[in-house]
What does this fold into?
Amino acid sequence: MVSRVIPVDPFDLVIFGSTGDLAQRKILPALFRRYCAGQWPEDVQIIGAARSELDSDAFRDVVAQSLREHAPAHCADAKALNAFLQRVDYVALDALTDEGWGQLAAKLTIDRVRAFYFSVGPRLFGPLAERIKANDLATTQTRIVVEKPFGHDLGSAQALNATLAAHFSEGQIYRIDHYLGKETVQNLMAVRFGNMLFEPLWNSQYVDHIQITVAESVGIDGREEYYERAGAMRDMVQNHLMQLLCLIAMEPPAKFDPDAVRDEKLKVIRALDPVEPHHIVRGQFEGGLSGRSYRNTVGNPRSTTESYVALRAHVSNWRWAGTPFYLRTGKRLVARSSVINVMFKDAPHSIFGADAGRHANVLSIRLQPNEGITLKVTIKEPGQGGMRLVDVPLDMSFAEALGPENQDPPDAYERLVMDVIRGNQTLFMRGDEVEAAWAWTDPIIAGWQARGDVPKPYESGSTGPGDAELLMKRDGRRWQGINP
Ligand code: BG6
It folds into this structure.
């Protein structure tokens, strides 16, 4: 099956912070891949803007180098690469002064979608928004895109929202959480709301508990300063894991439209109970064969920042009362593996007797790697006398089921950047959602600070601190394995 590409109209995209890591590693390669897929027309303009005094040719060289590194397969087509680079331009510009803004204004096209991507730290969001307005660059077709971290706590997120709201309407603000752009995350909604099979069982009567694991094998090298201030709670749980939880827990929206979906997600966040201190485990990686300890990496022998969090959350509403959500995420774990496991209850009575064994159904939604969905069902163990039961997976690997051309689904940024151009906010966070997520996260972090909590050490390359196993064991449950 060949994926369908829906072309977009011509647009101007300005990337502030265009020489930075995110722009070079994610945004520009995503644009290039969409260009190669034929999604956008020839007269698009991509304008890099940053403080570096480069001319357009020098910037194109920088971009070409990044594309060779981050989109190597597409770069094999030299003609496509050159054609893409012709669409790329550059302005040296300072967010804090008037320098460069006149040149930027002169390059923009009248009367088409104009997107400004703030690929910069949040302290520049306000100055950039002000200068876009002051230089009359904002039209009715203007959108701005902002990246996480969206604030450090509730207060700073409210301040950022207020700053942006002073210059742009909510309908113009696209807050990225790149997890929402991941193919399988969207598939989660398709599975839930496109099938009759699951939704009737999707509640505390049939679901024992839910496990959301986002395990990473990478550490924090190159991002020490940011991470030391953030930790796993702010870096991953407040946003990515929270969004996954919302998509699992939300009520069916009436329509797949931005506000209908975001209203339902917001209700989930607001229904979350505060987390009890004994329902949360923080960890910090030690060195191991594969590298330095967290403390060595950040150069702070007394750091108490967590690189791992496991917690038990409760969504207090009719659907989920009594069904816990266990979330865990960490750096330098045994494998890169993001999976949501919906753990169904045991059948109420076994007609086969105690010796047959009992197996509960598990629906696993694999976000990465090997995107796909597996449903474990119980059948008779073949060839045995009597009735012994065994689990078998009904496995749907998207690459296998949909053909080799779907082996490599579009990167989250490809989807999200094109949604900005199309003006579709469904997969972007609304201001009130971000604030509600901070309102739930802040007391957890404040509790750690008040108690002088020190994270539990765990070996690099392990599955995390032993206490995370205990968190489950106390409830008579256990984590599913972290398998690459
Ligand atoms: C980012 C976090 O938002 O997501 C990183 O800041 C993390 O710490 C990354 O590594 C994970 O994204 P992905 O797409 O690689 O799972």
The mean pLDDT is 93. The pocket of 6-O-phosphono-beta-D-glucopyranose is lined by residues 148, 216, 235 (CB under 6 Å). The first helix runs from residue 21 to 36.
